[in-house]
Amino acid sequence: MGDATLPDWPAAMREEMAARYLSVSATWFRERVAPAVRAIRPTPGVVLYRRADLDAWLDRAAGMNAASAGDSWADA
Fold this sequence. Notes:
Distance between the termini: 33 Å
Strand content: 5-15%
Oligomer: single chain
């Protein structure tokens, strides 16, 4: 059972929420994560990021995948 204080994160999130999900600033997300994660645009003006893609990015950044070059937290 999960921690009751944590939100139930949606499957897709706008930039601000995606940044909160990764515990980074929106600026850092925009500069470092967004270019490496495919954005979904369901309607004009709406940009979403899939939680599964954010998790995959995080795994790469943590060195859990050989394709992690350039996704390092150390570059912050």
